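A quick aside before the break. I want you to see a complete sequence-to-structure record at least once, exactly as it would be stored in a machine-readable document. Don't worry about memorizing anything.
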Amino acid sequence: MAELEHFSQQDPQWKSKPLGFDDSSPIGNYGCLLTCMAMVATGYGFDVTPDSLNEKMKAVGGFQGAYVMPYLIAKALPGMIYRDYRECNGQPAPLSEIDAYLAQGKAVIVEVDFSPKEGLQNHWIVLDAKQGNDYLIADPWPYPPDSKEVTLTFRFGFAGPPEKSIQAVLWLDGPAGAVTPAPTPNLDTGVAASFKVYAMSDDLAIRSQTLIADSTLITRVAMNTELTVLETDAAAKPKIGQVNQWLPIKTPDGTVGYVAAWYVSLDKQGPPAVPPIQPPPADTTPAVIVETASEAVALRSAPRISEADLIKRMPLGTQLQIVEKSPKAKKKIGVLNQWLQVKDVTGQVGLVAAWHVMLSTGQVALGAKDQAPVTPASVPDLSAQPAAVLLRTAVDNLALRSEPIIKDETLIKRLSLGAELIVTESADTAVPKIGKTGEWIRARDVSGVEGYVAAWYVSERPAEPALAAGPADS
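That is the input. The structure line, written in tokens, reads:
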């Protein structure tokens, strides 16, 4: 990857131009992610600017309003690759994976808090290189762009160290081809812990580097495989069960490599203490799921725009199952003046304006709020929150399982990134588990399928907007 060209979203050449399809959102105020994507693309040899990338992404439908859909960059710039997106608000950022990517000479896009004011003023920047325990950054906000080296902690350290200040990570790749990974270092130096660890899942990966990638996979081992830890007790024990930590190990057949410390334990996995959930029978007509394409979309009791018919308003990305039986229902999605009968994850049935929803693909549109000074948000009235605990998945292909144990036979289905779930166990037991490694939560998705999800890969869904909020035509 070549050196990035540094751009500013506030460059006079494009700062006043509309971002995506929203004429009220200029690139100068909202275009940080677009600008970061353009910077990363230049590192892979593309002759592109935030202005030209904006037009290319629009041409392939790469926006929801002003929100960018990064996974479509491959269509806008053939040869670019969308690798992964991961939210990490409320849990440590995956620094080991970020570091491994940077070690290959590839930049990483991350979301940070723009200001120490109350709440999250989200902003996207590029991590260009590792520097000690810090990172060199390319920040799209200043104009002209920074001419001297700036670190993540220097500019955004008010939010804490990197593992706390990074709120989300976006990995893009390019046509330069896969970088040949470095060979596995000599991990078996004669040092070994006094204890063994055991694989907590079937097909647990053993890797040549502390990086989750096809090129680093050495082999896979079965659940409860005994692994020898190739470092001291003092170094190894604190890592066990911790996200972003890796252990050097040796398998029973002598294979040496790294294993994700959050997928091993000091004890073998036994049968769960809870009864398994029976998977639902196979359905030849799977539910059609849509999601709201803007904030504060209304759920109504009648197909008309009237406050008397308003049931509630829903946050951006709320998943809804179409429940009307009309064979033409799916054709209404996105069509002006059409209405759909739907059900949300709580079981609430109503009507939604079809032009304010889109077919759920499991991909998210990303962006940034206005980066101008903002008024701190008021403290929400917690007593007004619904009793139900609603969750969203933080990774793609998250497993919904019949038992809280990672095995092939417990898999019911896989959930897309951003899929919504309603907790079906006590809120008192579920809420403290959200985001915690090794914990499981019993929940049901919008299509009515119930099971267990890994608590460390879910977060609470945003609160429902106030009834008075929202666009007038919803």
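Two observations worth writing down. The mean pLDDT is 83. The chain has four domains: 18-173, 196-265, 289-359, 385-460. We'll return to this after the break.
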